[in-house]
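Table 4 source record.
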Amino acid sequence: MSRSLISRQGYENLQDQLVHMRRVELPANVKAIEEARAHGDLSENAEYHAAKERNSIIMSKISELENLLVTSEVVDPLPEPSGRVVFGCRATVYDVDSDVEHSYQIVGAAESDANCGRISMTSPIGQALLGKEEGDEVKVQTPGGIRILEVVSVG
Protein backbone atom coordinates (compact mmCIF):
# COMPACT_ATOMS: atom_id res chain seq x y z
CA MET A 1 0.00 0.00 0.00
CA SER A 2 1.56 3.30 -1.03
CA ARG A 3 1.62 6.17 1.44
CA SER A 4 0.78 9.72 0.39
CA LEU A 5 2.23 12.75 2.11
CA ILE A 6 -0.08 15.15 3.89
CA SER A 7 0.38 18.10 6.24
CA ARG A 8 -0.89 17.97 9.83
CA GLN A 9 -3.57 20.54 8.95
CA GLY A 10 -4.67 18.54 5.90
CA TYR A 11 -4.89 15.35 7.97
CA GLU A 12 -6.99 17.09 10.63
CA ASN A 13 -9.28 18.53 7.93
CA LEU A 14 -9.87 15.01 6.57
CA GLN A 15 -10.64 13.77 10.09
CA ASP A 16 -13.12 16.64 10.59
CA GLN A 17 -14.83 15.80 7.30
CA LEU A 18 -15.13 12.15 8.32
CA VAL A 19 -16.62 13.03 11.71
CA HIS A 20 -19.09 15.40 10.02
CA MET A 21 -20.14 12.72 7.53
CA ARG A 22 -20.64 10.12 10.28
CA ARG A 23 -22.30 12.34 12.88
CA VAL A 24 -24.31 14.79 10.78
CA GLU A 25 -24.79 13.71 7.16
CA LEU A 26 -25.42 10.00 7.72
CA PRO A 27 -27.95 10.37 10.61
CA ALA A 28 -29.81 13.10 8.68
CA ASN A 29 -29.98 10.82 5.65
CA VAL A 30 -31.20 7.85 7.70
CA LYS A 31 -33.97 10.07 9.04
CA ALA A 32 -34.86 11.18 5.48
CA ILE A 33 -35.08 7.52 4.40
CA GLU A 34 -37.38 6.72 7.33
CA GLU A 35 -39.64 9.69 6.55
CA ALA A 36 -39.81 8.78 2.86
CA ARG A 37 -40.53 5.14 3.72
CA ALA A 38 -43.49 6.30 5.84
CA HIS A 39 -45.13 7.82 2.76
CA GLY A 40 -46.13 4.40 1.48
CA ASP A 41 -45.46 2.57 -1.78
CA LEU A 42 -41.68 2.51 -2.21
CA SER A 43 -41.73 1.59 -5.91
CA GLU A 44 -43.13 5.01 -6.87
CA ASN A 45 -41.62 7.04 -4.03
CA ALA A 46 -39.13 9.51 -5.53
CA GLU A 47 -38.15 10.87 -2.10
CA TYR A 48 -37.22 7.38 -0.94
CA HIS A 49 -35.13 6.65 -4.04
CA ALA A 50 -33.36 10.03 -3.77
CA ALA A 51 -32.59 9.44 -0.09
CA LYS A 52 -31.24 5.93 -0.82
CA GLU A 53 -29.06 7.34 -3.61
CA ARG A 54 -27.80 10.05 -1.23
CA ASN A 55 -27.02 7.29 1.28
CA SER A 56 -24.82 5.54 -1.29
CA ILE A 57 -22.97 8.79 -1.96
CA ILE A 58 -22.43 9.40 1.77
CA MET A 59 -21.17 5.85 2.36
CA SER A 60 -18.78 6.18 -0.60
CA LYS A 61 -17.44 9.47 0.75
CA ILE A 62 -16.95 7.95 4.22
CA SER A 63 -15.07 5.02 2.68
CA GLU A 64 -12.92 7.39 0.60
CA LEU A 65 -12.05 9.52 3.65
CA GLU A 66 -11.20 6.45 5.73
CA ASN A 67 -8.92 5.19 2.97
CA LEU A 68 -7.20 8.58 2.64
CA LEU A 69 -6.58 8.71 6.39
CA VAL A 70 -5.18 5.17 6.51
CA THR A 71 -2.83 5.69 3.57
CA SER A 72 -1.61 9.18 4.55
CA GLU A 73 1.75 9.90 6.08
CA VAL A 74 1.72 13.13 8.10
CA VAL A 75 4.71 15.40 7.55
CA ASP A 76 5.01 17.40 10.76
CA PRO A 77 6.74 19.73 11.06
CA LEU A 78 6.94 20.74 7.42
CA PRO A 79 10.49 20.96 6.07
CA GLU A 80 12.14 24.37 5.74
CA PRO A 81 12.26 25.37 2.06
CA SER A 82 15.84 26.78 2.25
CA GLY A 83 15.49 28.35 -1.19
CA ARG A 84 14.24 25.19 -2.90
CA VAL A 85 10.66 24.18 -3.64
CA VAL A 86 9.79 21.29 -1.31
CA PHE A 87 6.64 19.67 0.08
CA GLY A 88 4.66 22.16 2.17
CA CYS A 89 6.36 25.33 0.95
CA ARG A 90 4.76 28.18 -0.93
CA ALA A 91 6.22 29.03 -4.32
CA THR A 92 5.42 32.16 -6.27
CA VAL A 93 5.81 31.73 -10.01
CA TYR A 94 5.57 34.05 -12.96
CA ASP A 95 3.67 32.68 -15.96
CA VAL A 96 5.56 34.06 -18.94
CA ASP A 97 2.72 33.51 -21.44
CA SER A 98 -0.10 35.08 -19.44
CA ASP A 99 2.10 37.71 -17.69
CA VAL A 100 0.58 36.75 -14.31
CA GLU A 101 2.08 35.68 -10.99
CA HIS A 102 0.62 32.71 -9.14
CA SER A 103 1.34 31.54 -5.61
CA TYR A 104 1.08 27.81 -4.93
CA GLN A 105 1.55 25.73 -1.80
CA ILE A 106 2.89 22.28 -2.67
CA VAL A 107 0.81 19.66 -0.82
CA GLY A 108 -0.26 16.03 -1.08
CA ALA A 109 -3.02 14.93 -3.45
CA ALA A 110 -5.54 14.47 -0.61
CA GLU A 111 -5.41 18.13 0.38
CA SER A 112 -4.91 19.84 -2.98
CA ASP A 113 -7.33 22.59 -3.95
CA ALA A 114 -6.25 24.72 -6.90
CA ASN A 115 -8.91 27.33 -6.12
CA CYS A 116 -7.18 27.95 -2.78
CA GLY A 117 -3.67 27.88 -4.25
CA ARG A 118 -2.80 24.38 -2.96
CA ILE A 119 -1.52 22.09 -5.71
CA SER A 120 -0.55 18.46 -5.48
CA MET A 121 3.10 17.54 -5.63
CA THR A 122 2.03 14.90 -8.19
CA SER A 123 0.34 17.42 -10.51
CA PRO A 124 2.26 18.51 -13.61
CA ILE A 125 3.07 21.93 -12.13
CA GLY A 126 3.86 20.49 -8.69
CA GLN A 127 6.24 17.91 -10.16
CA ALA A 128 7.95 20.52 -12.33
CA LEU A 129 8.47 22.90 -9.39
CA LEU A 130 9.83 20.40 -6.85
CA GLY A 131 13.53 20.98 -6.26
CA LYS A 132 13.63 24.26 -8.21
CA GLU A 133 15.13 27.47 -6.81
CA GLU A 134 14.35 31.16 -7.18
CA GLY A 135 15.15 32.29 -10.70
CA ASP A 136 14.74 28.84 -12.27
CA GLU A 137 12.55 28.54 -15.32
CA VAL A 138 10.50 25.43 -16.01
CA LYS A 139 8.45 24.23 -18.96
CA VAL A 140 5.36 22.37 -17.86
CA GLN A 141 3.10 20.21 -20.00
CA THR A 142 -0.41 20.90 -18.67
CA PRO A 143 -3.78 19.82 -20.07
CA GLY A 144 -4.03 23.33 -21.55
CA GLY A 145 -0.66 23.09 -23.30
CA ILE A 146 2.94 23.91 -22.46
CA ARG A 147 3.42 26.68 -19.88
CA ILE A 148 6.68 28.43 -19.06
CA LEU A 149 6.96 29.35 -15.39
CA GLU A 150 9.72 31.26 -13.62
CA VAL A 151 10.18 30.70 -9.88
CA VAL A 152 9.99 34.18 -8.29
CA SER A 153 10.17 33.24 -4.61
CA VAL A 154 10.11 30.24 -2.30
CA GLY A 155 8.87 30.49 1.26
